[in-house]
């Protein structure tokens, strides 16, 4: 309930809302909640949040793991609702990636997910979170989880001695922009 309230509160920072979306989908929400959120997302003013949510749901539609079957079905319906508005967003917006495979007969599988959270003010993503999960005989284990924040990297590149006036002025202009 708390995470849902954070996500729907449009006054909060977009990065916080995007992270709350990731946490919300870790709980495997019901189909009705996913559809309700899709309808609410049609009026979303922040394209960074909308892009992350849309790409995450679109990635979930291709999931083959039985654990995610209901979420994949709900995401397919939500994608049909949202695709006219959000299907053309580029990579400068936040994105989610999901790759998984599961073999039912052996009850073995693996999944990898990555979330790239961008900000309109910078070229580089603000945060990248990646997770690898393994499935064996009905049990799941997070094998690896990595998060990287890129705060200050763009400023450090601008102050770099490699970007002096006679070195790469075009690159310096791009970073300043």
From TrEMBL:
Residues 92-159 form the Vitellinogen open beta-sheet domain. One of its GO terms (molecular function) is nutrient reservoir activity. It comes from the Eukaryota. Keywords: Glycoprotein, Storage protein. Transmembrane segments: none annotated. InterPro entries: Lipid_transp_b-sht_shell (IPR015819), Lipovitellin_superhlx_dom (IPR011030), Vitellinogen_open_b-sht (IPR015255), Vitellinogen_open_b-sht_sub1 (IPR015817), Vitellogenin/Apolipophorin (IPR050733), Vitellogenin_N (IPR001747). Residues 2-58 form the Vitellogenin domain. Pfam families: Vit_open_b-sht (PF09172), Vitellogenin_N (PF01347). This is Vitellogenin. It comes from Cirrhinus mrigala (Mrigala).
């Amino acid at each position: 309930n708390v995470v849902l309230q954070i996500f729907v509160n449009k006054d909060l920072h977009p990065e916080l809302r995007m992270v709350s979306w990731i946490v919300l989908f870790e709980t495997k929400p019901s189909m009705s909640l996913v559809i309700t959120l899709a309808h609410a997302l049609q009026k979303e003013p922040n394209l960074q949040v909308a892009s992350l949510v849309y790409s995450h749901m679109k990635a979930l539609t291709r999931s083959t793991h039985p654990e995610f079957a209901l979420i994949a079905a709900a995401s397919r319906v939500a994608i049909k609702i949202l695709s006219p508005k959000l299907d053309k967003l580029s990579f400068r917006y936040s994105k989610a990636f999901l790759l998984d495979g599961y073999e039912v007969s052996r009850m073995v599988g693996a999944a990898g997910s990555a979330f790239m959270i961008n900000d309109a003010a910078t070229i580089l993503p603000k945060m990248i979170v990646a997770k690898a999960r393994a499935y064996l005989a009905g049990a799941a284990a997070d094998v690896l989880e990595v998060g990287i924040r890129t705060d200050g990297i763009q400023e450090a590149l601008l102050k770099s001695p490699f970007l002096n006036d006679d070195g790469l002025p075009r690159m310096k202009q791009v970073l300043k922009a």
